[in-house]
Amino acid sequence: MLTPELLHGLRNLSLAARRAAEGFLNGAHASRRHGAGMEFSQYRPYQPGDDLRRLDWRLAARSDRYYLRESEVDTSLTVHLLLDASASMNHRDDNGLTKLDYARLLLASLAYLAQQQGDSVGLTILSPAGLRHLPARADTRQLPRIYHALATAEAAGTFPDSATLAPLTARRQRALTVCVSDLYEEESEINALLTRLRAVSGDVLLLHVMAHNELAFSYHGAVTFRDLESGRTMQLDADQQRPAYQLQLQQWLRDTAQAARGKGFDYHLLSTAEPLDQAMREFLRRRITAG
Fold first, then answer.
1. What pLDDT is stored for residue 103 in this prediction?
2. Could you give the CA distance from residue 272 to residue 106 in angstroms, rounded to a whole number?
3. According to CATH, what is the number of the domain 4-28+76-290?
4. Element (H, E) at 128
5. First to last CA, the chain
6. Taking residues 94-108, what's their average pLDDT?
7. CA distances for 178 relative to 99, 102, 122, 238, 282, angstroms
8. Torsion angle of the four alpha carbons 17, 22, 27, 30, in this order, in degrees rounded to the nearest 10
9. What residue segments make up the domains of the chain, in order of their start?
10. Helices (H), the chain
11. pLDDT at 128
C-alpha cells in the first residue's frame, strides 16, 4: 500500500489518484443489471424481437444455435465531493502532510474511482471567501478540472456561514455526498450543512480527517499551540497534559461519531498517517447501497 507521504511526494495529483485507486478497480463494479452494456456477462437464447446486433454469430456458426451476449451495465449515480478548506486544515502532521494535503489526495482518488464507475462527479471547496463549485459531470475533461481545483485550493479562515452555503441546498438533486473535514466548528455549522444536504440529496459519507499527532498527542515538553482559525495561543507542558487531553479527545470523538450517525451520516475517522485504502473501501461500499 502506498503511504500518503509517498503519494504526496509524486507532486502530481492525477498520477497519485490513479496509483492510489488502481488496486480497488478489479472487481469493484457494483450494483449491476443485465442489459446491452460494455462488459460481457453471459449468453441467453435468442427470442423473437431481440436486437439482432447482439447475436453472437461465431457461436451460431459453430453450434447452429442463436444466442445473445448479455452484458452487465453499471448503475451510475451523481457523486458530490465537499472539501472543508477552513484554516484548521493547515495543521501539519509529523509526516509533513497537512490535513489539506491528505484531503486533496483522498478526494482526487475518490473522483477517479467514481469516474471509473461511470458516475457524474462534482466538487465544492468550502471557504469563507465563497464556494468554488464544479457541477457534477461525467465527461472526460471533468477529472482534470477537479485535480486543478484541488491542487490550487488553499485553507483559510473559518467554515463559511449559512448564507454562503445556501446555494448548495437550493435544489433537490439525488446524489452521494462525500465530505472531508476535520469537523472543527464554532456552532455545528458543518453538521447543519450535511443535515440539509441529506434532506435534499440523500446519502452522506462523512470522512473525519485528523492528524496522527492530534490523535496521539505526540508532543513533549513545553509547547505553544496556536488556533489556526482564531489565532489564539496556549502554552502548556505536553507530557503533563497528555492524559487529560486524550480523555477529552476520545470523548469528543465518541460524541462526534454518535451525533453524525444519529443524523444518518455514514461516519468514518481517518488519520493522515494511514493509507487511503479505508476511505476508498467505504466509498465503494456506500456507492453500492446508494446505487
1. 98
2. 10
3. 3.40.50.410
4. none
5. 28
6. 97
7. 16, 15, 10, 34, 11
8. 10
9. 4-28+76-290, 32-74
10. 4-9, 13-21, 57-63, 99-116, 142-152, 162-165, 189-201, 212-216, 238-262, 277-290
11. 86
